[in-house]
Specification:
Elements: H1 3-16, H2 25-39, H3 54-57, E1 66-69, E2 73-76, E3 80-88, E4 95-100, E5 108-111, E6 118-123, E7 128-138, E8 143-153, H4 158-175, H5 188-203, H6 219-233, E9 234-238, E10 254-258, H7 264-275, H8 294-307, H9 336-352, H10 360-373, H11 391-403, H12 411-423, H13 441-453, E11 458-459, E12 464-465, H14 466-476, H15 498-509, E13 518-519, E14 535-538, E15 543-544, E16 551-557, E17 571-572, E18 575-578, E19 584-594, E20 599-608, E21 624-627, E22 631-635, E23 647-653, E24 663-664, E25 667-671, E26 676-686, E27 698-705, E28 707-710, E29 716-718, E30 728-739, E31 748-754, E32 763-769, E33 777-785, E34 792-798, E35 813-818, E36 829-831, H16 837-840, E37 845-848, E38 858-865, E39 870-878, E40 882-884, E41 897-905, E42 910-917
Parallel strand pairs: 2-8, 21-27
Antiparallel strand pairs: 1-3, 3-6, 4-5, 4-7, 7-8, 9-10, 11-12, 13-15, 14-18, 16-17, 16-19, 19-20, 22-25, 23-24, 23-26, 26-27, 28-30, 29-30, 30-33, 31-32, 31-34, 34-35, 36-37, 37-40, 38-39, 38-41, 41-42
Length: 919
């Protein structure tokens, strides 16, 4: 909710009554400005805290106690954390608890003083996933036990901090819910919106009111909030046909809204919470809506939003919404602050209850308002395109465009993103109201939804990684970062109280919607592409919301018009290219699969058009890594012009400030005399004066380092390169650490994969090792059973999760080929054949002469090239295994070609083996 805007509405409503529709737009804006200034320092009513009798509210109705522990938690070594749970008493409402921390330290015991919050503090001194156990024994001797997992990493990690911040915030909300289910205040202006935000924060972190309360400690909390919204403040209103069409899709003649002061803001928030409840078939227990299912409630709520949309009679305000949640034609005018909440509600209903269909004319009408209210600089205004443009209303405008199906390539979105780029770091807007990085949590949420809808991870000229910037702000800002109790401070605008800022911050930090599932993200050019030219697509920005899971597969379909056949995808892999032979607009779909088998899709539209001049493609090379004080040559020679007109100018941004003014030329040298980690960018121009894709500037990472981890073929041994099906293969991999200046490497991951992990990730072993100092070595061992008779490529990666920035990133991977197929035992052979020394230098090829008398020792071994020149010679070979690593007598690799290996035994028998060297 937006406090000032709500106060403006109240003031205007009282002073103008029902004559608002006759007030000229300029007069309305002037009065709104006056009221904004008048109420800019107004404070909301005091927060109420009435926890009530929790045992009566949440009675388990069983004989013995029912114990619950907090959800999976995230921490790091040396941090003091709160570990907590609760108990629902049975017939006896007193007893004792015991906490076992799962790390071998003494347990903590005591009498249960607060059944709702059995909390202790603890500090883990070692990393790993710990299992904490809560045991409660009531005074009759009945016992119940529950456990929780605590993921402890050795060092402070950004993602771990975000996870912990979300959980701490949810705990604060749990402890500050009032007895009848609402948060903050019974005044439903504040209470309805706050309660909706709090419920939604739980739901978007996979806690639902219909979850088993013995499995989800927050299930009853969420349901209490939903019940308060539905039972207490659900309202109906008669609706009818509008100028644009009939909003009554179910024909019952009613619309539904929430609250006694029916504003679009809190009404939209309440709908978001109900739509995400994951219980369409649940029935409202009491109140005006008693007997209706949540599904029926949502359809009538959608109808009410459609009915209250500004009609064509509203002139330039046509298609938007303003303050009233249940008024035909609303106020006859619109503002983008209010518009976002009906739009977000409609989007949530459609996503969570897809069989509810909003009338098509609602989107058509909304397009009128969006076109009118966008300023020439891309910003969206309040009640007109030039009045009070800022981030929150521009975020609302972009999100609203997504709802009506506007593609990201549309000028409205491109200009909107340009405005957000320019004003992202503003702390106040043109009316001196706090912006999203100036205590305006309301603005943060609207901006986040726009970015989430369009799957935008970075944007702008720098570019801006908006989630990284905002998460840093919410974690660490001295004025508006998270409090030690898990809450967030009061804001400067609209949502100014902790019960509102806390769920809003959680929602902004929570990636995706509702479920902890994988999120597919396609990265590719948004500009037209030519026919018969490879177009690059990347799924590398896809991610899994659950930090315990990861993306295992990327599948691509490059033309949705002929159907999506995921049994036969067009391509598989994290990075792929595709060519189109005809001009058209193609819908590209990426399907990602997580390690938990959950899936997600993303869509990208590729325009293929030969009649336009296509932008050149910038390729800055990299990523780059080096030692401090080493010269790094940046190489842009991979850049090209799809139209073959040539590139005339290369411009470099070598300090990541978004300005391409640091160097020119195909290559350029940079040197850093200190540890550095940042971005470098390149843009190029073609002979026609067109610049490389400005909507997706090409940046790569660059860092200098004083540490290196080394995993080479010389440090890997394998028990058998030709195991039979079902045979166990033993791997031994030693990782060396090299550091300078006394530096150390923290904990990192070594992982084995069955197959190329850039195509299909199939991990067969994961090891956490470190910390390590200069000269340290650590060895990992893996036993793996050969599953079949096929050839398997086993990838072994040190620092598999790329946690360590090293000065040499090229020595972290070894590939082992395993195959069961061997030539007949009575014929001489060399394996593998052909032989690639680059791939198999750790595993020299094996010579199998297969003499009839294995007891007769081999005395000579000669290797000749095809010209008959002697390459290598050995005598007194004996019966040991004979190996050749593809090198000559001088230790140099031989050239590609055919070689003859002649072996002779003591009896004078000779065998000749032909082998192809192919590098």
């Amino acid at each position: 909710m937006k406090k000032q805007i709500l106060l403006i509405f109240i003031g205007i409503f009282i002073s103008l009554g029902l004559m608002l529709s006759s007030v000229l737009a300029d007069d309305l804006i002037d009065q709104a400005r006056e009221l904004l200034e008048k109420y800019s320092t107004a404070t909301p009513p005091p927060e109420l805290s009435d926890p009530g009798d929790w045992n009566e509210i949440m009675q388990s109705k069983q004989a013995g106690p029912m114990v619950n522990c907090m959800p999976h938690y995230y921490s790091w070594v040396g941090r003091e954390i709160t570990i907590w749970g609760n108990v629902h008493w049975g017939d006896v409402s007193a007893g004792n608890y015991e906490w076992d921390f799962g790390d071998g330290t003494p347990t903590e015991t005591g009498a249960v003083a607060d059944a709702r919050y059995i909390a202790v503090t603890h500090t883990y001194t070692t990393g790993g996933i710990k299992t904490a156990t809560l045991t409660v024994t009531d005074d009759d001797g009945l016992i119940d036990v529950d456990q929780t997992k605590i993921d402890v990493i050795p060092i402070v990690d950004k993602q771990q901090r975000i996870n912990a911040a979300i959980e701490d915030g949810l705990r604060w909300l749990y402890l500050n819910q009032n007895a009848n289910g609402w948060w903050y205040s019974s005044n439903d202006d504040y209470g309805m919106g706050t309660t909706g935000l709090a419920v939604l924060a739980f739901e978007e972190n996979a806690h639902h009111g219909n979850d088993d309360p013995d499995e989800d400690i927050y299930a009853e909390t969420v349901q209490l909030g939903l019940d308060w919204i539905l039972n207490t403040y659900g309202r109906t209103v008669s609706i009818g046909v509008q100028y644009a069409g009939d909003p009554d899709t179910d024909g019952d003649g009613i619309g539904i809204y929430f609250s006694d002061w029916p504003r679009a803001y809190e009404n939209g928030i309440a709908i978001l919470a109900i739509a995400a409840s994951n219980q369409a078939d649940s029935v409202v227990a009491s109140g005006t809506l008693a007997g209706m299912t949540y599904y029926e409630v949502m359809e009538d709520a959608m109808n009410c939003i459609a009915w209250s949309q500004a009609d064509s009679t509203a002139g330039v305000y046509r298609g938007g919404w303003r303050y009233n949640a249940y008024s035909a034609n609303n106020y006859g005018d619109s503002d983008n602050s209010a518009v976002q909440w009906p739009v977000l509600a409609l989007e949530a209903i459609g996503k969570n209850m897809p069989t509810i269909h909003t009338p098509l004319w609602v989107g058509t009408e909304l397009a009128y308002w969006l076109e009118y209210s966008q300023d020439i600089d891309g910003g969206f205004g309040y009640t007109s395109p030039t009045y009070w443009d800022n981030n929150v209303k521009t975020g609302a405008g972009v999100a609203s465009h997504y709802y009506i199906g506007t593609p990201i390539t549309d000028p409205a979105i491109v200009k909107g993103l340009e405005f957000l780029d320019v004003h992202f770091y503003d702390t106040s807007d043109e009316l001196s109201v706090g912006e999203m990085l100036g205590g305006n949590y309301y603005a943060l949420y609207g901006f986040k939804k726009a970015m989430e809808f369009y799957d935008i991870t970075t944007f702008g000229t720098a570019p801006i990684d908006w989630y990284e910037e905002i998460s840093d702000y919410l974690l660490d800002n001295t004025s508006y970062g998270q409090n030690t109790d898990g809450s967030w401070p009061g804001g400067t605008y609209a949502i100014t109280w902790t019960a509102g800022t806390t769920p809003t911050s959680i929602l902004v930090l929570t990636r995706g919607v509702v479920q902890l599932q994988p999120i597919a993200v396609i990265s590719s050019s948004n500009l037209p592409q030519p026919t018969d030219t490879p177009i690059a697509y990347s799924g590398a920005n896809s991610y899994h919301q659950n930090p315990q899971e990861f993306i295992t597969q990327w599948e691509w379909d490059f033309d949705a018009s002929d159907g999506l056949d995921w049994d036969n995808p067009d391509a598989i892999g994290e990075f792929v290219t595709w060519e189109y032979s005809v001009e058209d607009t193609f819908e590209v779909t990426l399907l990602v699969t997580g390690s938990d088998s959950l899936t997600d899709t993303d869509v990208h539209f590729t325009i293929v058009n030969d009649t336009v001049n296509h932008a050149p493609i910038a390729d800055p090379g990299g990523p780059y890594a080096s030692r401090v004080n080493d010269v790094i040559t940046l190489d842009g020679s991979g850049s090209y012009d799809p139209d073959d007109r040539g590139i005339t100018l290369y411009q470099w941004d070598t300090n990541g400030d978004g300005l391409y003014d640091d160097a020119t030329g195909v290559t350029t040298d940079v040197l850093f005399d200190h540890l550095y980690s940042g971005l470098i960018g390149l843009r190029v121009w073609d002979a026609q004066g067109l610049c490389s894709d400005s909507t997706a500037p090409k940046y790569v990472t660059l860092w200098t380092s004083n540490v290196d981890l080394e995993l080479t073929e010389n440090n890997v041994t394998v028990s058998n390169l030709h195991p039979a099906e079902g045979e166990v293969v033993s791997f031994e991999a030693t990782i060396e650490c090299h550091t300078e200046g006394g530096a150390n490497v923290g904990e990192f991951v070594v992982r084995f994969y069955d197959g190329d992990p850039t195509i299909i990730v199939n991990p067969i072993g994961t090891f956490n090792i470190g910390p390590m100092g200069n000269g340290d070595e650590e060895t990992v061992f893996l036993n793996w059973t050969m599953p079949d008779t096929l050839t398997h490529y086993i990838y072994i990666r040190a620092d598999a999760d790329y946690d360590v920035e090293e000065y040499n990133e090229d020595n972290n991977q070894v590939i082992v080929e395993l195959g069961t197929t061997l030539p007949p035992t009575d014929e001489p052979y060399f394996c593998p054949n052909p032989y690639n020394p680059d791939t198999y230098s750790t595993y020299p090829g094996t010579i199998y002469p297969n003499f009839d008398d294995p007891a007769n020792p081999i005395t000579k071994l000669r290797i000749y090239d095809i010209a008959g020149e002697l390459v290598k010679e050995r005598e007194d070979v004996g019966n040991i295994s004979m190996l050749w690593d593809g090198k000559n007598e001088y230790g140099d690799f031989v050239a590609n070609g055919v070689y003859f290996i002649i072996v002779e035994n003591q009896a004078g028998e000779k065998k000749i083996i032909k082998v192809a060297i192919l590098r």
